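# step 3/5: fold
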Amino acid sequence: MRIEGTANMIHTHWQVESPLIGGWLEAGPGFPTEPGQAATPGKVQAKAEVFVMVRSLKSVKEDGTPYDEAMDRVMYEHLKADTDPKARILYRLTDLTLKEAPKSKDAPYVFEAKGDIVVAGVTNQVTTPINVLPQGDKKLKITGSGAVKMSDFKMQPPTALAGALKTGDEVKLSFEWNVMQRAPAAAASK
C-alpha cells in the first residue's frame, strides 16, 4: 500500500509505503477466480475486510529507499499509533459491481467498490474503481487507487518548521493486494 501527498516546499511530493496488507475476502458464485472466466457486468456478491497496520507504514524516497524517521513519527502521531499500538487503516467492502469484463485472458476485471474506510478512528464511505486479475490456482491480484482528504478524518494536515512547511489535505491511496483461497479445513477426527 502506498499513500502519497504534497507539501508546499522544495520537496513537493511525499510518500509512505507498507509491504503488508492483511484481511479476508469472501465471494459468491460468479466472482472471477480464474483467468478468462466468463462474467456478466452487474452486482457481485462479495464481502471483504482489509487492513494495514499503521506502524508498518514507512516514509520512502521515489527510489523506494527509507526517507526520514521524523516524518514517520509525525505520521504515527496523526494516525494515533502513539496511543494505540494496534492502530490500523481499515477498509470494509459493502458493495461490489462488475463494470467491465476483461478484453483478453490477461486483462483484469474492472469493478466499482463501495465501502467504509476507518482512519484514526473516523469512518467515511468511499467509492473507488478496483481491478481484479486472476492469477490461476485461485490466486488474485487486486489493485486500486483513490483520493481522500485528511480533514475528512478529523486530521489536521501536518506542518513543520514553525508552520512554514505545510502538507496538502488530499492524499492518494493505492494498493496491490495478493490473495489466495484458503485450503478447506481438515475434517475433525473422531
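# step 4/5: annotate
The mean pLDDT is 89.
# step 5/5: archive (pending)
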